[in-house]
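Practice set, problem 2.
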Amino acid sequence: DDIALEPKWRLTAFHGVQVEGQSSLSGAKNLDVLRERLAVSMLRRVRKDVLAQLPPRSDTRVPVELSEVQREAHDELRRPVAELVRRAARRPLAPREFTRLMQLLTTQRMICNGMAQLRFDEEWPRIATQKPTPALLEGLFAPKLSTLRTLIEQIVLGQGRKAVVFSQWRNMLRCSEWAIRDLLEAGGQRAAFFTGAESSKEREAAVVAFHEDPSVSVLFLSDAGGVGLNLQRAASCCINLELPWNPAVLEQRIGRIYRLGQERPIDVYNLVSEEGIEGRIATLIGQKSALFAAVFDGSTDAVQFEGQGSFMQNVAKLVEPVEGAVDTGVALEDDASLDEVVLPAIGTSAEFVREGAGELCAPIAASEGPIAAVMPALPALDLRGLTVERRADGGLRIDASPALAGPLVALLESLARSLREGGSEVAE
């Protein structure tokens, strides 16, 4: 309906809540008017409305104990994270500080997955051609791999079901496939991949094989496969090797198999390192899901967007003292002491940038020089399909798909704004 909404020029003016002195929006208002105008041309059908047509779904939080090596590496980063949170309570974090905070939090999440992922470039050449013996698995300090083996043995080999396995990081998926390969081969089974690293032809072949080949019983997916795939006729089990920050992303993953057309009961297993940052992320995801339901299924006339302030409140909850925990460090008083905190080796910086912070942000892990100090936390973008043409007059022409155009414009505007705000620092 071309006239269901106001003209585009009026949308922001009438529905946007402006941040004083800035061009960004802090929220939306007059939502009742939007609902009324859209009512004649929009049908919102939420999952609970068709619950009678869907099979039962069981969600299980699988606790995974950290190894001592993981625990030490994880806790070493709590002090600099806590210091940045304390700074944020006094003043807004500078772009450089916010990027550093995201690096630290993402590294903690990778540690929770296992030191094998964190040290992938070092460990993979050593283990790739070996069988995952108990001793070798223990030496990788990645208990989730052993937990996954147990689940695959019970569900795929024991019950004869197919499973989808999600992770934000492809290196974690590679380690996981290696960890279960011998089990699958012993049962005449194999796994396939659907991630951003495969070509579109390879991804299509993987999906076809997962549906039609009885021997392809496990499909490993990154969040590139979290949307747009219909796998409900192939699999009835979803295993999340870690939880994403955003509960909507989690539901998108599960929604690949829990959708109309699914006739079997669904089992969802979320692997959570309870002692690390993951345990608190899991709690926050539950709170966010409840808030989402209250806003979008309610009748409120306004909504406040989450900005850095509310994000920092969530981070503060992640790093607040745990009962019985001991503070092992002193506060970091300046940027120099913050920079002295060395992050463990995280493999290729390209993967860290591309997949490390996922839907929340992609830190510039290897940036150096004055530009890095004012670089914003950039969203992770799939730039395939983007073309850049240098024109004769010295300008540039950028062609992007509609899905990429919005995030790309936001990225460039954010970069320009950060450069303007940090202009004096760049000049120095």
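Problem 2, part (b): a different protein.
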Amino acid sequence: MRASNAFTLAAGLLVSSLARAETPAATFDDTAPTDASEFFELPFTVPAGTVEIEIDHKSLTSGNILDWGVQDETNAFRGWGGGNTEPAIIGVDRASRSYLTGAINAGMWHVLVGKAQIVTTPSHYHVDVYLRTAATLAAQPERRPYKD
């Protein structure tokens, strides 16, 4: 193995092990409400100094489809990933697909969970919310914060 390949592999393993060692700021391990509502909210508190939020979400009941979105502390829409399976990441100047960059203000934020298709109840889900003081995504200078 060439030295550069070995270094790349070692760096990747280090980053991967650091990511697994990170503790979620909030965890939701529950079942979707069985009422007639189309969606429900999972509130979490964002402290001052946060520059990136990652929401790792999973629908755990086969055949069911849950959609995922985020509202910030003013209840403004910050993104709707729908059935995206990868985690949602929202940062000041970077964000994953389907989500908006912009200020990460302290306060009560919400994961929005849409009940797109519930064929089996109970419908289990698991969500981990990570709050970071340093960004993990590469900068995206071509993306600007949303303005009405």
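Answer key, part (b): DSSP finds one helix and eight strands in the chain. Confidence is low (pLDDT under 50) at residues 1-20.
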